[in-house]
Amino acid sequence: MTVLQGALADRDTWSASGHCPIEKTIAVVGTKSAMLLLREAYYGTRRFDDFARRAGITKAAASARLAELVDAGLLTKQPYREPGQRAREEYVLTEAGLDFMPVVWAMFEWGRKHLGGSPLRLTHRDCGAQTAVVLRCAGGHDVAPGELGVEVAEH
After folding, report:
1. Does the pLDDT of residue 123 top 90, yes or no?
2. How confident is the model over 59-118, as pLDDT tens digits?
3. Residues linked to residue 3 through DSSP beta bridges, in sequence order
4. Are the C-beta atoms of 23 and 51 separated by less than 8 Å?
5. For residues 127 and 104, what is the distance between their CA atoms, to the nearest angstrom?
């Protein structure tokens, strides 16, 4: 269990509602289609029609979710032009989008472990070993769930 520390320890004196980073993140990416579009971006998809087809969603849903992901700063649009075609835009992950990647891969790993049925696994391309998403403190220590604390950051 995660331990609430300092001013957060007395749960009756504060509320996370409206301030919680989890709540704010879900507001941005809390739909199935948004997560599938991000998955596809991590797999290298860049073109609108490919996003809709590969995520298995309608073009209307893809358009709405991609616009939300752009507005949230996870994706950006970049112009491209095929020879003889009009100029178009493709979607590219931003730094914020790349920073979100461990969340998606943690969901991938949780699904493999607890829902099963997938032959897919994450590997380190250099050596081929299976990978894992871990919590690590700035001191370099892996942090187990029972060792995790939450506190108010000092400014």
Report:
1. yes
2. 999 999 999 999 999 999 999 988 999 999 999 999 999 999 999 999 999 999 999 888
3. 149
4. no
5. 22
8-state DSSP, 50: H
Count of C-beta atoms within a 10 Å radius of residue 63: 14
Please state, as a whole number, how many other Cβ atoms lie within 10 Å of the Cβ of residue 72. 17
The pTM of the full predicted model, rounded to 2 decimals, is: 0.85
Type of residue at 6: G
β 87-93/75-81 pair status: antiparallel
CB-neighbour burial class of residue 106 (10 A; exposed 0-12, middle 13-18, buried 19+): middle
Cα separation, 50 vs 73, whole angstroms: 20
Q: Are 49 and 83 in contact (CB under 8 A)?
A: no
CA gap 131, 108 in Å, rounded = 12
Rounded CA separation 2/16 (Å) = 15
Distance of CA 102 to the CA centre of its chain: 7
